[in-house]
Amino acid sequence: MSSPILYATAQDVQIWLMDFTDTRNYLTADPTVLNAEVFISKDGGAFTARNAAGTLTFLALGMIKIALDATDTTCKDLVVAIVDGGSKVFEDNSRYFHTEGNSAAKFYKAEQATVADTNTKISIPNDYKADVSNLALEATLTTTQSTVNDTNTKISIPNDYKADVSLLALQTTLLATQSTVVDTNTKISIPANYMADVSSLALQSTLLATQTIVNGIETSIGTIQNLGTGATMGDNNFDIFNAAGGGGGGLTNDEAEQLLRIYAFCIGDFKSDDTLAGTSKYEYGLPGQAPGTLFTHLLVDGAPNITTRTVKIVP
User: Which of 166, 234, 251, 255 has the most Cβ atoms closer than 10 angstroms to its Cβ?
Assistant: First the structure.
């Protein structure tokens, strides 16, 4: 009769040894069986030494415990024999085993495999226990549950919890703003294309020179008199130099001509008319005066000399 063992599994088996001198009794003392005296035969093959390197242990009543490894038990049928190779202390003996617990074993049922697997996991529980290192603590789960409950409440009455978007800009407004930002970014990135053209502005040195001339003219003019107090324009004598003719009031002819041109540019239409008596004259009219009005005013003749004459407004 064969005894069951697990397929391809390290395990121990036992064989009883009888006393060589009295075959009716088991050995009572350790016969010191050597590893070289233990042989195995797998599936009817030749006897060879065990693959397992474990020692042999004498138990009691002549029983010897023999260690086998997974290689030794990878078979359907196994015979383990002990042969006394010395002074014949014990009778040679052998024992027959069959394997179970695997589809490759001699006998196999699914439930046996399950039982065998369960036995393995029970024997080394740390290798098969569930990993709970990442599970949340009870306190954390309680907090999470509270959050879930609060969320459920808010979902059930959303109007009480929805965001106020009344002050948010419409999409069209945002798009317009975005367009402005993009345009601004473009102008900043290439400023030379968008900066003001100041090429026609006068330099500071030119403006300062002009200011010096104006200041000199203002100093030379003195006090302006007779600014239109007569009954008619023709009765008024606009004597800007405080003395008639010849650059009176301390102005030179050049200064007087410059002043006249500035004055004409600011308040009237400066024109040339060769129909007037005398040499070619420059004249200007005041805004608002009707054509043909006669009045006493300044003229500059071709000399040029400053004179005070009555002239006609040119249309």
Answer: 251
Residue 286: C-alpha distances to residues 255, 291, 301, 306 (Å): 21, 10, 19, 19
CB neighbours of residue 10 within 10 Å:
14
- Residue-number span of the structural domain to which 244 is assigned: 207-312
C-alpha pair distances (Å), 59 with each of 32, 64, 66, 268, 274: 12, 6, 11, 142, 156
Question: Which domain-ending residue is among 123, 139, 164?
Answer: 123
Spatial separation of the C-alpha atoms in residues 273 and 254, rounded to whole Å: 21
Tokens of 32: 């010191």
Residue with tokens 């090429």: 199
Q: In this structure, is residue 87 part of a structural domain? A: yes
Find the helix packing angle between 253-267 and 204-221, rounded to 10°.
Answer: 110
Per the listing, tokens 């603590």 go with: 137
Which residues pair with residue 94 across a beta bridge? 81
Question: pLDDT band for position 23 (50/70/90)?
Answer: confident
Amino acid 3: pLDDT: 94
